[in-house]
Design brief:
With 440 residues, this protein is of the alpha/beta class. Helices cover 59% and strands 9% of the residues. It has three domains: 128 residues, no CATH class; 124 residues, no CATH class; 120 residues, no CATH class. Strand 2, helix 2 and strand 3 form a beta-alpha-beta unit. Helix 2 packs across helix 3 and helix 14 packs antiparallel against helix 15.
Length: 440
């Protein structure tokens, strides 16, 4: 009797479809379950995602297939989880079902990033399915991780939310993934946190570099119309849709790295931190002189007295000119409390160049006061960081597990060192030992 009651309870939901439903325009995303407020919020996010994706790669053509997102109630003690499924039907008017099921966490919580990523994947599959001819049947579909991550990252940058610091690190370390490995990668589930971040950033740079090519938007539209059902080498498919660009390994990576370098540049409106401002000051606050042969010499600010020994005001201004330009440019992006420091440096350099101040002790005192102020700012910043660290460590409720990847890496290094005990490695170690004295 209990089983019968359960069946009757779910009967209206399953058979008559009377569960609450919210949908986007043209029913491209249907949201089922939970309360109307949450469904409405998810639908609005999905509408923005569809709009931005269509703007990035042109609107898809053909009759749309719906993506159905079912919100399941939370289960005590279990976090939010999400799964997706591709099904074929016998209905000639709706041959495919794109299903997403998401179990909510406590308080109707869920992972917004994970949901967006799954929706991007399903919308890309839907674009390919609508491009199929009436006699074409899709037996399987697949979107490679690089394309999901790349388009998601491109959308973030399009909306002004991209993180420049990740790409700046890529440029400095040269740590981007090879394009062939990136495109052919079929899973990211076993990557550690560092590799996963590298993969995401590299994918974003590649997608944005593709879109930046002549006719890149149209090429991307045609590429997305085939990518989900393609069964060959994905780099070959990529080359076929971007024939005007050298997509060989060297050519592809060359303009891809140019895109990474462009993305790593900080915009004028981005404010530096105190350590970043200090680093810029130490590197850029220089004086320029010419030796007897006419060659330019770059010297530290501590050599300011040599400016006073120059004969003409023109020579003195030439010596401080690069530093003055540097300080002016830095004032747009420096940490706000450093603007008074930059003004101080500009004023004292101007006084030296014009010989307005003749007393060396007075000039030295100004430089010393600026140095003391900078040191105090650095100490205040470190105290604030220590305070935030203390607050975080004293209030944390649970461990994230993020550091486990580093511990696993340490164990892997130990394991690889222990593996050197086999006969071949012992022989190579003996040979290396014989040749080491000869190399010295």
């Amino acid at each position: 009797m209990k089983a019968l009651l359960v069946s009757l309870f779910f009967l209206p939901f399953v058979v008559w479809g009377q569960a609450p439903v919210s949908s986007t325009q043209q029913d491209r995303v249907l949201v089922v379950g939970s309360d109307s407020r949450l469904r409405g919020a998810i639908v609005q996010d999905a509408e923005r995602l569809i709009k931005h994706l269509d703007e990035l790669a042109s609107p898809a053509q053909g009759n749309p297939h719906s993506v159905r997102l079912t919100l399941l109630p939370s289960v005590e003690g279990k976090p939010s989880a999400i799964a997706r499924e591709f099904l074929k039907t016998d209905d000639p008017n709706n041959r495919y079902l794109l299903e997403v099921k998401m179990r909510l966490g406590q308080g109707n919580s869920f992972d917004q990033v994970a949901l967006n990523r799954v929706l991007v994947e399903m919308l890309l599959i839907e674009r390919t399915l609508r491009a199929l001819g009436p006699d074409e049947i899709a037996d399987r579909v697949e979107i490679r991780p690089w394309l999901i991550d790349g388009l998601s990252e491109a959308l973030e940058w399009k909306n002004g939310k991209g993180d420049r610091r990740v790409y700046s690190s890529l440029v400095k370390s040269g740590g981007w993934m090879e394009v062939e490995l990136l495109v052919e990668q079929d899973s990211v589930t076993k990557m550690n946190l560092l590799s996963r971040e590298l993969f995401r950033a590299s994918s974003g740079a590649l997608v944005m570099a593709l879109l930046a090519q002549p006719g890149g938007k149209e090429a991307m539209e045609n590429y997305l119309a085939k990518v989900a059902t393609f069964e060959g080498e994905h780099l070959t498919l990529l080359r076929s849709h971007f024939p005007q660009v050298n997509l060989g390994r060297e050519g592809l990576e060359r303009w891809w790295m140019l895109q990474v370098a462009a993305m790593s540049e900080a915009p004028l409106s981005e404010v530096m931190t105190i350590p970043e401002t200090e680093k810029e000051l130490k590197q850029g606050l220089k004086l320029y002189f010419k030796d007897p042969a006419g060659q330019s010499l770059q010297k530290d600010l501590s050599f300011w007295r040599e400016i006073q020994d120059l004969e003409t005001e023109e020579q003195r201004r030439a010596a401080i000119g690069p530093a003055a330009d540097f300080l002016t440019n830095l004032s747009y992006r420096c940490f706000s409390t450093y603007r008074s420091v930059l003004i101080g440096y500009l004023q004292v350099l101007e006084a030296i160049a014009s010989q307005e101040i003749q007393d060396d002790k007075e000039i030295q005192k100004v430089f010393e006061n600026l140095r003391i102020y900078r040191e105090a700012e650095t100490k205040r910043h470190q105290m604030m960081v220590d305070l935030l660290d203390y607050y975080h460590l004293s209030t944390v409720q649970e461990e994230s597990g993020a550091f486990e990847d580093f511990l696993k890496f340490k164990e892997n290094v130990k394991t690889k060192q222990e593996e050197k005990a086999d006969p071949l490695n012992r022989y190579l170690d003996r040979v290396q030992g014989l040749y080491e004295p000869l190399r010295r």
